[in-house]
Amino acid sequence: MLHDVRFSYDDGGTWALDGVDLTIGAGERVSVVGANGSGKSTLGRIIAGLAAPDSGTVTLLEQQVFHDGAADANAYRAARHGIGAVFQNPEDQIVTTVTEDDVAFGPENLGVPREHIGDRIATALHRVGMTGFGTSDPTRMSGGQQQRVAIAGMLAMQPRMLVLDEPTAMLDESGRAEIMHVLDELHRRGVTIVHITHAEDEAALADRIIRMDRGHIVSDGASDAVPLNPPYGGQLPSQRGATTQSSSTLHTVSAPSPIITLSHVSFSYAKNTPILADVSLTINPGETVAIMGHNGCGKSTLTRLLCALETPDRGDITVAGIPVARDTGRRSKPLRRRDRKRLRAGIGYVMQHPERQLFAETVAEDVAYGPRNLGLDGSELDERVSQTLKSLGLSHLAERSPFSLSGGQQRMVAIAGILACRPKILVMDEPTSSLDATATQHIHDLIADLKTQGVTVIIVTHDRSEADLADRVITLGDHSVGANHDREDSDDHRPVESKQPRPSFITALDPRMKMVLFLIMMFTAFAIGTPVQLALAAAMVAVILAASRLGPISVLHSVRVLLALFVIMSALNVFFVRTGTPLVRIGSIPITDDGLWTALVYAGRLALVVVLGAIMLGTTTPVRLTDAFGSLLSPLSRLGVHTSEIALTMSLALRFIPTLTQETQDVIDAQSARGGSIESGTPMQRLRALTAIIVPVFAGALRHADNLGLALDARSYEGGSHRTHYRMMHIGGRDIAFAGMVIVYLAALIALAFIS
Amino acid sequence: MSVSSHTNTHSTGVADSGRWSTRRIAVYALFVALAMVTSFVELPIFPAAPYLKYDPSGIVCLIAGFAFGPSAAVIVSVLGFVPHMFGDPWGSIMAIAVALALSVPASLIYKRWRTRKGATAGILVGAVVALAIAIVGNLLITPIYAHMTVAQVAAMIVPILLPFNLLKFAIHGVVTFLIYKPISDLLNRTR
């Protein structure tokens, strides 16, 4: 299958891979292990045909793709059609918001005829145990499910080999178990599997383990070690509510007064899906506590509550003597601004992937951000920064750009930025996730150091051995089932209701036709000038609303903010129009009947526009919208505009909006936990706060873009006209009927303009 | 630093067979998404006219233009406002015009002079063009939304429209200037 692979790979003077020879036979299951930076991901990309080496010879699936320092694009293309690649971050591999369409993307790129794509989707989803999820939105699934959809996307291309680069690094135990089961199954079916991982227990499941170190293969042999423990799928003890267990031998009961107290705290993001229910716990000063539990059991939520980033529905929370939340009987009251500031000074919050908050030009400046917000400056600030860096052994990095550091170093710098505020309590959410062994050890040493300094440390973790660092483990149980968890377990065997309601008249319209006609109606609505025309338009919109079978209440609810704005704006017209018969006078200003009518027409037509927009969006999925958009643009391709690429760009952009929104919110939370705020302070402070938010958001966008680019390559996206389309659009009788209706309406609107 | 120059030594040649490379599509998509997200942010920055809201999407258009050239500025400026079509049709057309007027001249100038001075000149020229478009746009569009004559809107130019837009473009410019260095570090690292 893969013969005599030998290459080196230049990265600005250092060699990521240096003279590597490797042959992988068809049907083998190989693991590649090694520390971060050992070259295993690079090796994976070369094997997957996603990158070419600098020198050597690469033969993939009998195609000699690289020889004598030259890449053969055609051979690469042919080889890549038979190779699937799955990456670490499940989210960045999803290209659209409907699972079926996502899985169809690869076959479409390969030019598989439309009538075969449906079968391929069904088979691929079945292989990964996701049958019944075809119409679900993959961006809202758990990580394990997303990763399975990503694998299905590859299987639909019927690859002979699958290369997976740390596919479980971002997943919890049950997610890991799901993926490993899928790999077992694929291997049984004869697919060659190359699995890059730094989890030894996962590697041990392969026939053969290749160990990498600094660009060399240091060992290559059959897997001999039988994993000691069940390698995956170990269930955590789960009990109702929060239970605590002591992992240290003795824990004194007569503790000093607690630094953190939660009593009967409940929290939910949405009605009827409680995340935390009636949780009570206390943590003493200087304690190191680990919080464990399944994904979605509310671990992260608990930390957000402590840092006053969320307010509980019920219950009291006290942190370092500050009442973070008080139960008033109906709802818990949030914190006052002054208390919030005091709390931020006392508690440090290290979010998941804190390196995503880095923003400054140098490490020192980034670390200075928090203390500066606390009011430090001048030599005091410099002193604080250099001390913090020194205590973490980072002094030599002070003048480097944080973006030029390795992942482990970035993590440490981000934590330094929080420790520089000298918090009494440090909350860390998954502090070692996706770090290698060395970097993890650094973090663990730090946790031990903080303990000797008397800092109270709270660690959220999935990792048993990490939890052993703590004095005490708090396990959040299944009682407080979260949304993620709910989806993860219960959906496995529950097919989505196959009996979908018949689509309404408006829903079933061809999206191109619908888009054009709706936009015409929306733009022309601004020409409405008389109450009679308004009445006609309102009647038209009412008919469309009825034909869309969307609930009128829910449509109005979705645009309520805009509606309120229009009412206020046009109410102003009442005061400015002086013509017509005066009705009443307020002070010296006459209110005339013309004024009232004007206000009504202006508010009315704007309201109709937004209601039409809401109906359009409510009856058309984003996928259909972008299909229509691409199709409507396609005539422009004759002018040299790259319309299909633009349409894909648009569809990917829409798919990433929720992700970026969430990340932006996370960055805002994290920076405000470091005392930054755009809403208060001098203009310069506000600008700095804005910069501290915008740079990490851009960094996140570029990171997603890199991963997404690879994912598009892995799905063999090559643009051009040989792509097939799984979904077809065609204009039918109802579209023509609807167009006729709109034409009659527009004619009537124009006629009314002349009559009056 | 344009995206097309990404055909580096480790290219397999496949990604470039399409008319746009996959990386280019991915980068554009993420910038468009960023412009969409930020265009929904509304910050009242001008106390005299609290209904005029500041949104940072112009910064995204500027950065896209600086980092990836004028064509990226066009794509991000146009596609970024498409979601607003279904809420505020005329307003979105005006927002696209203003974003184009700001980012396209700025990126054209920066393409020629890749220095801090070039970036400053680009932002200034872009801001002047965008200011003109914003005011003309307001003269044309405000009467559609509120019962006002063009003359009444014109009367608002000096006390409201001019200072608001000046402030808006000043924030765009200053923030872009402040964040461009760290962001270009990032871009250089990812290549």
Overview in brief:
Chain B: This is Riboflavin transporter. Chain B: It is found in: Cell membrane. The complex is a heterodimer of chains A (756) and B (191). By secondary structure, chain A is α/β, with parallel strands linked by helices.
Structure description:
The complex is a heterodimer of chains A (756) and B (191). Chain A has 756 residues and is an alpha/beta fold. Chain A contains 24 helices and 24 strands. In chain A, the strands form five sheets. Chain A has a six-stranded mixed sheet with strand order 7-8-9-3-10-11, sandwiched between helices. A six-stranded mixed sheet of chain A has the order 12-22-15-21-20-19, sandwiched between helices. The longest helix of chain A has 32 residues, at 683-714. The N and C termini of chain A lie far apart (80 Å). Chain B has one domain (20-190): Orthogonal Bundle (Arp2/3 complex 21 kDa subunit ARPC3), CATH 1.10.1760.20. Helices cover 71% and strands 2% of the residues of chain B. Chain B has six helices and two strands. Chain B has a two-stranded antiparallel ribbon. The model of chain B is unreliable at 1-7 (pLDDT under 50). The chains are: A alpha/beta (756), B mainly alpha (191). The interface between A and B is large, with 86 and 60 residues. Chain B: It is found in: Cell membrane. Chain B: It holds the Pfam family ECF_trnsprt. Chain B: Belongs to the prokaryotic riboflavin transporter (P-RFT) (TC 2.A.87) family. Chain B: This is Riboflavin transporter.
